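F.,

This is the one I mentioned.
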């Protein structure tokens, strides 16, 4: 019996009692699902519910009285071993071994589907992450958003929502101008402009632009007049940088459905249309030759310029048009993953959302993440040799690999700084969290191989009641919480919860491995217990694999 099945059973008991008049409760007051959780102290049982305390007031009775009605009905179910009422009305439930053990079969037979749920079904979520300017390699902050954003997209999809993974390319404005002028300077053997970009990658791209021109039989763009040279290097250089960013993200297992170009908002007239819509809604006004959005009506600290007095669109105008564009493509919610340096943008963005008649925090959600620091030999890693001024995604992957990089970036809550110890992540010890989890998966695979060599096979059948050791119960309890954990992590937009769960599961499995045997000893025959524990072992394999897949991390079968 899964916690979801137990929750449904309790809900049915409450509804039946209300219909029979045993308790006085309106149908509308009966929740569709009730909370079923693992008790903090395992001696209290396998599962606990506070449903009696939640509904007692509406039922005009004492919590313990309502708990007694539920407990009496639960005891009549053959899957329940015992039920106790504790404190003010907690219902503590212990499952029969066969009922608890049946979960192993459920997991193995569900395969990749175990953990998937429909908690977000019927919603279309546009998830934007990374969105680094195409003026240099992906830095550590961008690497974190790539890992977190991709993992969050997998979680949301696993919870039933339609997800659009989107990357916003800031290819309009002064930063691109500085990038292009930096390329020209390097191509001519000059120092980069004072406000330009450095690093070996600028030289590499400048060389490639010249090589491509020569291959096409075109003049060397470095020899063109200044403005023509800037335009030539801009056109080709941005494409090359863009392609490089895409390649790096793909190698990092961060795939995108849409690469949206900021410049298209201005060339397509989307900015003008968005402002017209806001003007029709009475949210736009003209002052001092500029066009303004009245964001102070929605809690912003000052109104924001959309079109400057010189007729040029302000940066915020692109944000306005882009948000509207996302919704025109069917998004019910637009989620933005932004770095800590964007914290000041939240007020104006939420005000803009409300100005369109949408609900901040629902139709627009902004997640702010903190800094990433690399440490090696106890000292911070300051800069990349290739990028010159920053540490990049490539630097991290080169040091520890994609698996360790992704896992370490995801396992810490986004609103906390993360220090990545390169020495630790390169080690093969239990202190290395990704190794610890992957090793647990590899161990389950090794156990299965050894079982086959000793004649233990799942084909021999499955007696769930044979999973009667306390360690079996503990492991089953952790496995049972995986679907709810996935739904919670998706709802709260917190993929780090999956990593922490996997570490808990790995620890519980390692403890179980030391207490329960899947293969018989030399003088033993294969028993129902061996077969049942192979099912349980394989259930752990499946959940570890599914959980690692949600984080975009591989599940090796040998280590």
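My design for it:
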């Amino acid at each position: 019996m899964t916690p979801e099945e137990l929750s449904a059973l309790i809900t049915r008991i409450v509804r039946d009692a209300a219909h029979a008049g045993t308790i006085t409760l309106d149908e509308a007051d009966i929740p569709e699902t009730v909370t079923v959780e693992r008790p903090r102290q395992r001696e209290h049982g396998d599962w606990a519910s506070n449903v009696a305390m939640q509904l007692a007031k509406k039922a005009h009775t004492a919590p313990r009285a309502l708990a007694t009605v539920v407990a009496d009905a639960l005891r009549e179910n053959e899957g329940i071993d015992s039920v106790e009422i504790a404190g003010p009305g907690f219902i503590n439930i212990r499952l029969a071994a066969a009922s608890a053990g049946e979960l192993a079969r459920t997991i193995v037979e569900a395969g990749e589907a175990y953990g998937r749920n429909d908690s977000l079904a019927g919603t279309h979520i546009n998830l934007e992450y990374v969105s680094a300017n195409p003026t240099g390699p992906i830095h550590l902050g961008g690497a974190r958003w790539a890992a977190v954003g991709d993992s969050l997209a997998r979680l949301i999809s696993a919870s039933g929502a339609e997800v659009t993974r989107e990357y916003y390319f800031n290819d309009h404005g002064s930063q691109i101008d500085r990038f292009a002028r930096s390329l020209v300077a390097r191509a001519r053997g000059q120092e980069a402009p004072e406000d330009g970009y450095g690093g070996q990658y600028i030289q590499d791209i400048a060389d490639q632009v010249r090589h491509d021109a020569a291959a096409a039989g075109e003049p060397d763009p470095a020899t063109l007049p200044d403005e023509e040279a800037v335009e030539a290097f801009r056109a080709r250089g941005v494409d090359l940088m863009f392609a490089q960013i895409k390649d790096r993200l793909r190698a990092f297992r961060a795939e995108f459905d849409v690469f949206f170009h900021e410049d298209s908002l201005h060339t397509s007239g989307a900015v003008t249309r968005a402002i017209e819509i806001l003007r029709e809604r009475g949210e736009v006004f003209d002052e001092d030759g500029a066009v303004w959005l009245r964001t102070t009506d929605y809690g912003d600290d000052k109104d924001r310029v959309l079109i400057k007095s010189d007729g040029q669109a302000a940066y915020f105008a692109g944000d306005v048009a882009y948000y509207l564009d996302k919704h025109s493509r069917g998004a019910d919610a637009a989620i933005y993953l932004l770095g800590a340096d964007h914290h000041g943008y939240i007020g104006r963005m939420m005000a803009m959302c409300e100005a369109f008649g949408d609900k901040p925090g629902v139709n627009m959600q902004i997640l702010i993440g903190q800094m990433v620091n690399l440490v090696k030999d106890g000292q911070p890693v300051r800069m990349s040799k290739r990028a010159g001024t920053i540490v990049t995604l490539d630097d991290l992957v080169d040091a520890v690999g994609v698996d360790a990089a992704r896992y370490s970036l995801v396992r810490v809550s986004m609103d906390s700084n993360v220090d990545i110890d390169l020495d630790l992540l390169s080690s093969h010890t239990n202190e290395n969290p990704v190794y610890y989890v992957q090793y647990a998966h590899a161990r389950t695979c090794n156990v299965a191989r050894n079982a086959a060599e000793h004649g233990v096979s799942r084909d021999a059948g499955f007696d769930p009641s044979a999973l009667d050791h306390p360690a079996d119960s503990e492991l089953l309890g952790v496995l049972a919480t995986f679907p709810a954990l996935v739904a919670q992590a998706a709802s709260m937009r917190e993929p780090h919860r999956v990593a922490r769960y996997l570490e808990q599961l790995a620890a519980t499995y390692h403890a179980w491995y030391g207490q329960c045997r899947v293969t018989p000893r030399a003088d033993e025959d294969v028993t129902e217990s061996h077969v049942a524990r192979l099912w349980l072992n394989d259930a752990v394999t499946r959940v570890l694999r599914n959980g690692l897949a949600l984080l975009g991390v591989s599940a090796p079968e040998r280590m």
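The chain has a mean pLDDT of 92.

Talk soon.
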